[in-house]
Structure formats: C-alpha cells, structure tokens
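For reproducibility, we list the full input for the zinc ion complex.
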Amino acid sequence: MVTTWEDEKVKVKEENGIKSLISKRSFLKGEQICCVEGEEIKIPNRYSVQVSDSIHVNVKEPVMYINHKCDGNIQLIERAFYALKQIQLGDEITFNYNETEIVLAEEFKCFRCGQLVKGHKSKAEFPCLEIS
Ligand SMILES: [Zn+2]
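The corresponding predicted structure, in tokenized form, follows.
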C-alpha cells in the first residue's frame, strides 16, 4: 500500500493498482472533506464531477480517486463534499455517483451489488441501498 497524495484531512492510497481516498482523521456529519476544483467542461469524462445541469468539473487529486459506493459516506453540496455520516480515521471515503451525475461518461458496475451505475436518469434498483 502506497500513499500517492495527501493533505491534512485525506490521503490517496494505492493498493493492487487501485487508488482510493482514505480519511486521515474522524469527521462529524456535515464536516467538509474536500472541494471540487478544476477546469469546467461541458462534456463529462470518467473523472469529472457534475455540479449543475450543464457544468462538469474536470477534477484532479484527490477527488478523482473517490470510488463509488451506493451508500457512500459523503455528499456534494455546490462545489464541496461533506460527510453524510460520521467517518472514522482510516475509513474509505466514497460517494454514490448516481447522486451527482445525470448520465455517466463511462458506466461501470457497483462492486458490491453488481448493478450498472449510469447516473440518476436510469431507473435501476440498487440492492446495496437497501442493505444499509
Ligand atoms: Zn451497489
């Protein structure tokens, strides 16, 4: 396991070729985790984050390495991510891509429920949302 990026709140770790965002301290619900910064683009790509109907932000580290989880622990409010629930030191930071993206540039399967994550236009049911 290698740390490839960090600030005082979070770090990007790489393990078996997969990068993920890990908390470096605990966060209370509502605390800001990181900001969505980068060039504004009109056409989404696999790393961009949708911030309005027509604006996507071409984010860099660390936001580009936040992995999907149907019941992720952060939410996007305007241009920043905030804790949706208490996050402990060492927890992976994840968010539900269906919440921010209308249509994903590249669909992928949720690694837990296997459902295709496509953006919130799709009407798929996500079993992992019912588990949590
Ligand atoms: Zn899922």
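The chain has a mean pLDDT of 93. Residues 28-84+96-131 form a domain with the Beta-clip-like fold (CATH 2.170.270.10). Both points were considered when choosing residues for closer inspection.
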